[in-house]
Amino acid sequence: MNLKKLKWTVGYLCMLLFCVSVGVKAQVTKPNINKVLDVAEQQYKSYLKLYPNNALYPRSVNKDGSIRLVKSKDWTSGFFGGNLWYMFYLTRNGKWKNEAIRYTETLENEKYNKTTHDLGFVLYNTFYKAYHITHKNSYKEVLLEASRSLSSRYNPKVAAIRSWDFKPFKYPVIVDNLMNLEMLLWASKISGDSSFYHIAVSHADVDLKYRFRTDHSTYHVLDFNPANGELIKKQTFQGYADSSCWARGQAWAIYAYTFLYRETKDPKYLVQAENAADYFLSQTDLSDDPIPFWDFNDPEIPNVSKDASAAAVAASGLLELSTYVGAKKKYYERAQAILSALCTDEYLAKPGTNQYFLLKHSTGHRPHQDEIDAPLIYADYYFLEALYRYQHYKNLKGVL
């Protein structure tokens, strides 16, 4: 820890001790869901009017401040359609359902894409919701075909699904990849094909074996020898350093090991979800609010960007995690605190600003200086999802 960070940490701890000494107790306010829905209503209405092409999808902003639109092959293409589905879930206004279908169906051809591990992000976030609402068999078939495509990237010697195909990696398995296992687990249930389940669980077990440090923080990338399955290196691609903990990567782990427990009932996944959550929360305890810095070990903290996307992913995961554990209140209240912070003007955009995204202050890829302190479509997705989970918390198992 450098001197600047040490002084900041000591100062912050002194402030906390002072608050305790004078009997000040922080009050967690409830997230203002109606405020968010009002902003989302105006932002998305404006976006849909200005950008009617439903074969382009909002991702972030460019360095010049203009909106960044992507095609269906981009790993983020499914999040906007998912946001529209959550707008329908949260409001029950049929116009959002209609728009969600428009932005879902243009993604269908990606079901044949065998060059990416991100098919869950692209298709499960959209077609699962479409199928859940409409029960249209064609939507189910899209997801089953996508699951077959994703399974084609599984190497039994590594016992995991390959992430990227680019060099210098030999057979990279990134923490983000865990999120796509939910589609395989669903496909196994709906089709009766146990191979999907086997691949998902095998991948999760390999990840569990190598992903975590002794303090339960995560490595971003595990690189394997595809010929024999041996681990070559643990490193980062989007974090500060190989030895650091990238905040969104830690949030992916919380979220994924929670649904892995839900779908398998294997207690080792629940234990790891709790461990990952406790590490994440121990680090945000050192911040000035519940929103994490982009990497927990950046030596320039606090003079670095936050990551609202990591906060949103974590909040959604924590809400579900809280329903499975004895420490229910702890995780529920921490998720509530995160959501309340994201609902403030510091993070929630004003209508007509932020290029029609909801949240400000996310960090996409800091080492590449891309999408820094910027809106990200997946931040908005997990934010809306978490608010939906919060709204339906008493029946959360019935809406997952």
Any overview of this molecule?
Residues 1-26 form the signal peptide. The active site is at 118 (nucleophile), 176 (proton donor). With 400 residues, the protein is mainly alpha-helical. It has a single domain (29-399), classed as Glycosyltransferase (Alpha/alpha barrel). 52% of the residues lie in helices and 8% in strands. It contains 14 helices and nine strands.
Question: Could you write a compact summary of the structure shown?
Answer:
With 400 residues, this protein is mostly helical. The protein has one domain: Glycosyltransferase, CATH 1.50.10.
Number of helices: 14
Coarse shape = globular
The proportion of residues in beta strands is: 5-15%
Q: What's the architecture in CATH terms?
A: Alpha/alpha barrel
For the largest beta-sheet, the strand count, sense and barrel status come to: 3 strands, antiparallel
Radius of gyration over all CA atoms, rounded? 20 Å
Total discrete domains: 1
Order of helices and strands: HHEEHHHHEEEHHEEHHHHEEHH
Strand adjacency order, main sheet: 5-6-7
Q: What's the multimeric state?
A: single chain
Q: What low-confidence regions span 5 or more consecutive residues with pLDDT below 50?
A: 13-26
Structural class: mainly alpha
Q: What is the share of helical residues?
A: 40-55%
Write down the CATH topology.
Glycosyltransferase
Distance between the termini: 41 Å
> For this structure, what is the CATH class?
Mainly Alpha
The chain-level mean pLDDT equals 94
| Total number of beta strands | 9
GO biological process, one term: polysaccharide catabolic process
Pfam families: Glyco_hydro_88 (PF07470)
GO molecular function: chondroitin hydrolase activity
Family: Belongs to the glycosyl hydrolase 88 family.
